[in-house]
Each structure stands twice: as structure tokens, then as C-alpha cells.
Amino acid sequence: MKKFIFLYIIISLFLFKSQFAHAVAPDAAAEQTKATREKIGPILAHRTEFEVLELIDKTREVFQVPISFEWSYIDESRRDLKMPKIPFTISPGDSLADVLDRFCSATGKQFQWGRIRGIICVWPTGTNGTTESMLDVRVTVNVEGASAWEAILQLVREVNAKAIGAADRYMVARPTFTKEIYTPPLVFRNEHVISLSLQDVSAREAICAIMAASPIRMSFWYFNSYHGNIVDDPRSSSQLTLWFYNENGSLAHGPRVTDVREYGVWRAEALATVPTLSPNPSRQNP
Questions:
Q1: If we measure between CA atoms, which residue out of 146, 177, 169 comes closest to residue 264?
Q2: Residue 183 to residues 9, 188, 189, 247, 255: CA-CA distances in angstroms?
Q3: What predicted TM-score, i.e. pTM, was given to this entire model?
Q4: Segment 235-266, tens digit of pLDDT
């Protein structure tokens, strides 16, 4: 009986890990994935106007392909600025490349898209007066046998070491917790398989390189200059939110959180990348 239980545990762990085993960058043909009527209908719900972030997220749902997105606010002193809305439709037979091309055109070329280290990204062109993205900071990142979380924290440390002194700004990475309060997948923290040597590259390229080398499929959303979003701090903070996916493109997560203190662990690790910054005890979510 004990042998049977042991074998069951081993098989279960193998199956859990195997769903992420090949979950890296989208394959080379992802841009040619075609939209189907069955996918478009329930997701777009016959609407024709969307905020740009919402549209990117719904595009991901239609095509089941992770898309990383970057947004910079025009005025850092404003917390109530909303993303612009654009008229947009996705039709059956449209490819992902067609949709992203039309998206960039519909925003007046304020955004561009492409592959960075194999990761599909949408980011500002800088033509709309937005503030400089902290993902433009040049970094050198060397990691050996690191988990994805460790590699990302190292990247954020490098960015903050340069950006805080130069512009009194900082960036914080945030693993996404779902509404049901599940942690990120275990492999995000526990699989120490990433070895990279990145010399004088943009932080944008570095995060994509880490994601491409990760044992789990990932994407990021970057937002420039939230004020006091995670802590009460007068400096401008930017948030790098991390999303996780199964091989079929659906969102992935790890075990359910049973102790609220676990939030504090993730949050403390994230904030440790910011010099002289202490967590705000009134906030629980990392």
C-alpha cells in the first residue's frame, strides 16, 4: 500500500510538472494563428470599442497566445488617467499578426509590436509624449541555476540601482494572484534552471530573455509610474505584473493560499529589490 501511495505521488508530480515542461516562448507560427467564430463570440460580446489594455487581453483570449504589454502614463502626477478607447473588431479568419498590425494603426502608431527573444510584445513607440519606460534602462544580468522569480528579482535590482539614483523612480515585480487567491505555479519559484549572461541590454529584452528561458510560459504587463501603488512612497513606482499560462494558452496558477502571511513573503521579496524601501503594513497583496 505504501509503495502504491508513493508511486501515485511521483506520477502526480510528474504530470503537474509536465504541463509546463515545454511552456516557453510561443512557437514560430503563433502570429499566423487564425481567429474562429467560436472564440470571438463569447469573448468580444459584439462590442466594437475597447480600452487598449482590455483589447490586448481579449486578443490573447481569442488566439490563446500570451502577449506582453507595456504602457506609460503621459503625466506622472496623475493617478486617474485612463487608457484610450479605440474602435476595433476581430473577424473570423484574422491572424494574430493582422490584429496586432491593426491595433498599432488604430492607436495612431502609438504602439508597436514584435518578437523580443521570442516573446510577443506590444510596447509604446514614444510618439505620444509618454514618460520614459524603465524597461528602456540598460542592464547587465548574470544568473546561474536560478528560478524564474530569482532571475526577475535580479533584473529589477539592476534596474532600480540605476533608475533610483538618476530619476528617483523604482520598479517592483508582482506575480499575479488570481481572484481565488492562488499563488503562482510552483515551478516559478522552485525550478532552478535558468542560466543567462546578458550584457548591456534593455530591461525589456532582459525580461523577455528570462521568460524565454523559464520552465513556464509567461507574459508581463508593465505600467509606468503608479504613485504609492504598493507602498506609501513619494517616488514614482512602476509595476511589472507577471502572468502564467498552460500550454493551451489558458491562465495557470499554483496552490491555493491558506495563510494570508504568504502574501507577505512574496511582497517582502519584491520590495527587497528597492533600496531604502519598506513595506506598507496596511497592504496585504504583494
A1: 177
A2: 21, 10, 10, 18, 6
A3: 0.82
A4: 567 889 899 998 888 888 777 776 667 777 88
Please report, in angstroms and rounded to a whole number, the separation of the first and last CA atoms in the chain: 42
Q: Where in the chain is the domain with CATH 3.55.50.60?
A: 24-128
Tell me the three cell numbers of residue 184. 503562482
Q: Taking the mean position of all CA atoms in its chain, how far away is CA 64?
A: 15
Higher-confidence residue of 168 and 122: namely 122
The 10 Å CB-count burial string (b at 16+, else e) for 131-142 is bebbbebebebe
Give the residue-averaged pLDDT of 77-101. 81
Across the range 13-18, mean pLDDT stands at: 40
Asked if residue 242 lies in contact with residue 218, where contact means CB atoms within 8 angstroms, the answer is yes
Residue 50, helix vs strand vs coil: strand
Estimate the share of the chain in helix, then strand, then coil, as percent rounded to the nearest 5: 35, 25, 40
Residues sharing a CB contact under 8 Å with residue 70, sequence separation 6 or more, in sequence order: 121, 122, 123, 124, 133, 135, 204, 221, 222
- CA–CA dist 142, 81 (Å, integer): 37
Domain 24-128: state its class.
alpha beta
Beta strands in the chain (DSSP E): 49-51, 68-72, 85-87, 111-116, 119-124, 138-146, 169-175, 194-202, 217-227, 236-245
Q: Which residues contact 74 (CB under 8 A, 6 or more apart)?
A: 81, 128, 129, 130, 131
Longest CA–CA span in the chain (Å) reads 67
